[in-house]
Each structure stands twice: as C-alpha cells, then as structure tokens.
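hey can u check if this looks right to u? its 101 residues, i copy pasted from the old doc so theres a chance i mangled smth
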Amino acid sequence: LSDDTAYFVCAYANNQWDLEVELNADPAKSSFRRAMELSQGTVSIIDQDAVCFNRIWCCYEVWVSIYLRRSDEYKYDIYTVATTGAVGITDGCAEVDRRVE
C-alpha cells in the first residue's frame, strides 16, 4: 500500500451511541456495506482472543469480503500482533514480500 492509501474504519463511520439511526433492516444498505462497495479490500485486525469473530457485524463484513467480492482484485487480509511484531495473512503477495530480493 502506498503512503496515500485511504482506509475506511467502520467504528468511526457511525454514531456509536445511536446506532439505531445509522442502521436499517437491510444490512446491504448499511454504511458498512456501502463503504465496502467503494473499497479495494477489507482488513481485519485481530486481538489475541479474536473477539471480532464473536461480533455479528464483523462476521458480516468478512462474509461480504469473501463471498460477495466484486472481482478478484478485492482483497481480504487479517493482521494481529505477536511478540515479534505485526503478523499478517494476506490475500495474495504482500508489498513487503515483493521488495525482498
């Protein structure tokens, strides 16, 4: 990713204290889904307990990322922190791997 790559952070997109105003009966019309339609991929940041996979919206975003991809160019990556630093599972070759000769 380049230095000017934009990210959508779903937690910042909605008023977390009044989510009922932000959401409707059809998740495909949610701000989460609309932003995913505009993006080039999804990144899940996982804590040591993988709590995000217990949250329905996070699971929905993973499902949309994997099963409803617009094209093969849409990427889904997972990152976490280990004692040695960040560790990622990437959809395809990571930029850092391309730089290794």
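The mean pLDDT is 77.
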